[in-house]
Design goal:
Elements lengths: L1 H17 L3 E4 L9 E4 L5 E10 L5 E5 H4 L6 E8 L6 E6 H4 L7 E4 L9 E5 L5 H4 L4 H4 L5
Parallel strand pairs: 3-5
Antiparallel strand pairs: 1-2, 2-3, 4-8, 5-6, 7-8
Length: 144
């Protein structure tokens, strides 16, 4: 999984830099934040990186304990990999996860074992239309 994480980080950096955004490592131990993205006009967004092997996995689970509370400026960067293809970069507002509609986005609460609770993002053929709304080029303006 570390290999996917490094590839995901590289793909995200390249995509955001290409769009004129600056990307920095998180500046503190703030939970749920891997990167800070800054626009030229000073807008700042936080990004949680979530790599995914699209061949081996049908869904990706974002641990609630790691992401923290969803908020307006927090995004999940779901980076999907298929061998010999360019990575798919989805930029999903964290608030979208907090309002799942049980088709692509799901909330899994595990009662007393809160450390197992997560938000799940399903990636499948019929769900790609909805997930496609979050492909990077459809969301990049929200970072500027």
């Amino acid at each position: 999984m570390e290999e996917f994480r490094k590839k995901a980080e590289s793909a995200l950096r390249a995509e955001l830099t290409k769009e004129g955004l600056e990307i920095y490592e998180k500046e503190n131990d703030k939970e749920g934040v891997d990167f800070i993205v800054k626009s030229k006009n000073g807008k700042q967004s936080e990004v949680f990186l979530q790599p995914m092997d699209l061949i081996a996995q049908q869904s990706s689970k974002v641990p609630k304990e790691k992401l923290g509370e969803p908020r307006e400026n927090l995004w999940v960067a779901l980076i999907g990999f298929i061998p010999d293809k360019e990575p798919l970069i989805f930029l999903i507002p964290s608030e979208t996860l907090a309002k799942p509609y049980n088709f692509v986005f799901f909330e899994n609460n595990v009662g007393m074992h809160t450390y197992l609770s997560n938000w799940e993002i399903k990636v499948f053929t019929k769900g790609m239309e909805k997930l496609g709304e979050y492909i990077s080029y459809n969301q990049i303006e929200n970072f500027k």
